[in-house]
Amino acid sequence: MLSGAARRTAVAAAALGFLLTAVSACGGPSPSGPAPEDSAGGRPPASRSGGITADPTRIPGVGDRLLRRIPADSRQVVAVYGDGRDSADATVVLYTKRGSAWHRAHSWAAHNGRKGWTTDHHENDRRSPVGVFTLSDAGGVLPDPDPAPGAGLPYTRSDAFAAPRSWTKAYWHDFDYVIAIDYNRVEGTPPNDPARPEGASKGGSIWLHMDHGSGTSACVSLPKAGMEYLLRTLDPDLHPVVVMGDRAHLAA
Hints:
alpha/beta; ten-stranded mixed β-sheet; disordered N terminus; single chain; 4 helices
């Protein structure tokens, strides 16, 4: 992962095929029609028995299986709590670690794949992958909102991120801001880099991006304010990761 000192801000054009590869797994109206506008807010993850939420050294609602996959040097965790295996509704919470304790920094209502979650994601299954993934690169149509260049995730600004205007208008701003989830991609490249090391059938281009008010093709979507907050806050020197899945899988 690149250090904060090695931050890059690139403004470049990309070929149409490059863009379509990047957005094929993440975004676009469903065949059933358009979605409503963004939702906002957030709610805390539900408490569970067994003391998981009471221990400050643990991420609330996340069981041992996934906790073991969080790198020891990670001090920022974006937790995505899906409402259910087949639900597109979720809550995103940013946790920061001070000493040995995790602290809740902010939360937002969010969406995930239209059909819910899976532990075996494949292209076009319309489900978001369950797991722990690093967060190493960002970008979008809009300028980087981080007021301190050199401190945040490497950011690639390009009109190539723009959603096709053939999509329903509610989706046009989905990729104004994006943060790449390091699922089947090469870290240290722009989020819309089409390389998929595990093969095309395993899907890719799984992002945190702007919300359009309903489920995605596989990504996780947040309100604009949430994306701006994460882009200003996530720091590669703190080794941020996302822990994501429906609540049952997270707690297992």
